Amino acid sequence: MRLPPLVGLPTDSTLQGHRRFAMAGGKYVRALLDAAVVTPVLLPSLQPPLAAGGWLAQWHGGRSAVVNPVHGQGIDAVADGLLAEAHADEGLVEAARSRGHCFVPGVPWHPVGRVTHNPFYHAVLHAFGQACRQRQRFQQDSA
């Protein structure tokens, strides 16, 4: 008998009392089982430590943050002109930023996906909004 293929299903985490639980939408699990005929494997959220003094740590106000590991690529080392902001346990870069530009962060996870449920994602998108408003004011002042 041939087993159905395994498919990774990213999870988010939620705090229930003093315990953190992985969660995945039941409709996604059911769709994978019924329609796709695969076996879902729950992928845990990552909590990469954030670089002290880095943008992400400043925005979030903490030393680590929960991110969704739903990426199929990885960054082994950052290019010249970039600075790593967070690393996964296995050493892959989970966030980087430009050394010379006002607002150029790069992340292989998706902060827009759970922005209303994840304070860290909200902080990243809030910083983006602030950078947009600052840029707009600069352009208006320069005109």
TrEMBL record:
Classification via InterPro entries: Class_I_gatase-like, Peptidase_C26
Keyword Glycosyltransferase: no
Origin superkingdom: Bacteria
Pfam families for the chain: Peptidase_C26
Record key words, sorted: Hydrolase
Gene Ontology MF term list: hydrolase activity
Protein name: Gamma-glutamyl-gamma-aminobutyrate hydrolase family protein
Lineage per the UniProt record: Bacteria, Pseudomonadati, Pseudomonadota, Gammaproteobacteria, Lysobacterales
